[in-house]
Amino acid sequence: MKKRQPRDFAPHISPEKAPPCNIEGCREAGVYKAPKSREQLEEYIWFCLEHIRERNKEWDYFAGMQSEEIEAFIHDSVTGHRPTWSRESRLRDNYYTLQDKLYEFLNGSKPTPQKPRIPSKTRKALAVMELEHNYTVKQLKSNYRMLVKKYHPDANKGDKNHEEKFKEITTAYKYLLQQLSEK
């Protein structure tokens, strides 16, 4: 590895304009800047060459972070810590609109509306909750309250069949609520 030369360490500010080194008792000019902390990367402390070297040896950006947080940071650094969207998600959102417009263009009329495909898990959950496909949160909660009152084990003297139905209702409710939140 190539050894660095003194000229490789160019100061961030000229010595005439530099504040004193941040280390107490040091009389050198603080011509090198270092961030105050991981949370304050835009605010700086000024050091002389000797003390900036010491600071750089001690500095650990990831100090105090859990391994999961470090992994998440590395994952996000690929995109510069900016939100991203997949091209496929935008295409998927516009697919049916595009398909309808193309059909209309080629045939001169609008296509007959088709029922959307519903995954079997969602169909089963809707059947348990006694709901139709285009349900709202209000309808879901209303049906949930009604079914809980009807099938709760305390209301049915510990009947095992009602207890199993109650578990199904609770599972279906959580699943459908999650599906609504993802939309």
Strand content: under 5%
Helix content: 40-55%
Largest beta-sheet characterization: 2 strands, antiparallel
- The class by helix and strand makeup works out as mainly alpha
Give, in order, the helices and strands.
Answer: EEHHHHHH
- Overall geometric form: elongated
Query: How far from one another are the termini?
Result: 54 Å
The overall average pLDDT, rounded, is 84
Secondary structure elements and pairings:
Layout: E1 32-35, E2 44-47, H1 49-58, H2 67-77, H3 87-107, H4 120-129, H5 137-151, H6 160-182
Antiparallel strand pairs: 1-2
Helix pairs in contact: 4-6, 5-6
Keywords for this entry:
mainly alpha, 6 helices, single chain, two-stranded antiparallel sheet
Structure notes:
The structure is a single chain. By secondary structure, the protein is mostly helical. It has three domains: 10-77, no CATH class; 87-114, no CATH class; 120-182, Helix Hairpins (Orthogonal Bundle). 49% of the residues lie in helices and 4% in strands. It has six helices and two strands, in the order E-E-H-H-H-H-H-H. It has helices at residues 49-58, 67-77, 87-107, 120-129, 137-151, 160-182; strands at residues 32-35, 44-47. It has a two-stranded antiparallel ribbon with strand order 1-2. A hairpin with an 8-residue loop joins strand 1 and strand 2. Helix 5 (137-151) packs antiparallel against helix 6 (160-182). The radius of gyration is 32 Å and the shape is elongated. The mean pLDDT is 84.
